[in-house]
Amino acid sequence: MSRSRFVKPEVTRLYLADVHKREHHALLERTGAEQATPEQIAASEAKVAQAVEDAEFIDVKRRLNTGEQQDMFAVMAPFMTPNQPLQLQSRQVMTGKVVAYLIGWSLTDDGKPVKVSASAINNLDPETFREIREAIEFHEESVEKELAVVKNGQGGASVSTPPSVSVA
């Protein structure tokens, strides 16, 4: 049975509290001169607790298809010249990925739902935007790792089939 070579439109829900949980875990892992103080740990725990209580989430595309990926890259680097260094639009590098992946969220303004749009994303406070961007980047890395495991077989070794014999 052959594999599908088309991206299925799947939605994944990501909780913003998970960003804070990963940050807290990284804080606890620090050692030596970088080791977290009790105050930093307490502040991090409070931030995790608040994020869990807020229960805010984003809905993202599991994977981008070719067109969506090319659109994202076109926003990030609109002026590509062959044989020249890539010139990235620094502002668009961060927002381009968020716009490409994000399709829904639980965010509200004055208790009213806010529809996801480029304008709404640009109006987010910087901390919320950072949380969303980091959640999406972690999601993207996780999916890439998952796909690499599937592609290379469970043991990580490359799975290939013998070349077909040509009919001559």
Distance between the termini: 26 Å
| Chain-averaged pLDDT | 85
**Tally of distinct domains:** 2
Report the helical percentage.
40-55%
Helical stretch count? 6
Give the SSE string. Answer: EHHEHHEEEHH
Structural class: mainly alpha
Would you count the extended β strands for me? Answer: 5
Give the CA-based shape: globular
- The value of Rg in angstroms is 21 Å
Low-confidence stretches: none
Tell me the β content: 5-15%
Q: Strand order of the main beta sheet, please?
A: 1-2-3
Largest sheet: 3 strands, antiparallel
Explained architecture:
With 168 residues, the chain is mostly helical. The protein folds into 2 domains: 1-15 and 56-154, no CATH class; 17-54, no CATH class. Helices cover 51% and strands 11% of the residues. It contains 6 helices and 5 strands, in the order E-H-H-E-H-H-E-E-E-H-H. The strands form 2 sheets. The protein has a 3-stranded antiparallel sheet. Helix 1 runs antiparallel to helix 2 (38-54). It is globular. The two termini are 26 Å apart. The mean pLDDT is 85.
